[in-house]
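During the second half of the funding period, the structural biology subgroup turned its attention to how the target accommodates small molecules. The most pressing case was 2',3'-dideoxycytidine 5'-triphosphate, which had performed well in the primary screen but for which no bound structure existed. We therefore specified the complex as follows and requested a full 3D prediction, including the ligand pose.
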Amino acid sequence: LNSIEKRAIIAIDLDYFYAQCEEVRNHCLKVRPVVVCVYSGRTQDSGAVSTCNYIARKLGVKSGMPIAFAKRILKGNDQAVFLPLDMEYYQSISEKIMEIARTSSEKFEQSSIDEAFLDVSSRFDPKLEGASSVARSVKQEILLAESLTCSVGVAENKLLAKMAVDSKKPDGFTVIIPSEEKSFLYPLPVGKLFGVGPKTEAKLKSIQVETLGDLALTDQKRLEEIFGKNLGRILREWANGIDNSPVEEKPTEQLSRIVTLKRDATSFDFCEVLEPLSADLENKLRTSKISGKTVGIIAITAQLKIKSRARTLSVPTQSGSQILAIAAELFSSFFEESAEDGQELRIRRAGIKVSELIPETTTTPQTLEQFF
Ligand code: DCT
Ligand code: CA
Ligand code: CA
């Protein structure tokens, strides 16, 4: 039983994700350099570039670069646009896209806000061809549903699929067939291997290991001496394209929705803005087939302090109206308590959180007929 079944894995990576989301809500941006920034708030331009579109990348802007530096590069370019990060919006688009990907595959694993793995091995023979056609249709579906492009990689394992997707962006489609795995990997510089950062790269170069081909042929003992037993072994396996890790969905720990109020609230007069949040949570719980045992509220004050309150239920729920009712009670009593303590509570952003998520009980009979 030591031979492992061959698999076909798809890696999906949304192109220049945050910047592309900005293009989606404002089409005029598509032909201009777009830079999405994390402003630190100290001075007007302090902070870093989170990501940018390919027009800005061609001009030399990069993730992580100081905003002031990016502004210098784009100085005199009156088309350039600098926007602040809007994670709520990107998160909402990400969730819709991940839902498309999740429902296209038996096994699904979201690895970040804009990346996921799909394992469709059980459905096809030959597997890579089947997976390639699923990859094409998912790519098309994401484009139709959300007007966003992504890159995909298809290969026998997660590592190779990830390396494949990274090799051609944006709008890439890369398949690595088994007979081409080594010719794909070996010429790559070691820095391109998934997980190899600047430190590991420098150590490898100090022992004259420049390419993945060099790494694949380096004495295992030597690597273990330098990097320790685990990392040493994994580096060599990965350089050889070996990776048996499964595609498996990480359990969601909590779901939350948050909204910025039109103006700061000093009493609970914003129930109607919570209504769509609870409806959204119900929808998410139902499609994920989970229920929440704890319902909580999140309040971000005018002073930007984060406060929360929660209640645990005797029976887990998926009901939006129940979630809303509990959130309303928690907000009301939160304002009352603050007033009793003689402190004025000013809430700027309000949210609802559902936690202690458990699989829904599908066996509960709704009627006696169903039961007998
Ligand atoms: N990020 C950041 N600061 C960095 C690097 C990344 O804030 N120094 C954020 C921005 C997006 C997210 O992390 C993921 O980054 P990438 O993997 O580069 O994704 P991307 O913007 O979608 O770019 P690509 O088209 O290359 O996938
Ligand atoms: Ca991406
Ligand atoms: Ca990414």
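Two results from this model are relevant to the next phase. The mean pLDDT is 93. The chain is about 40% helix and 25% strand.
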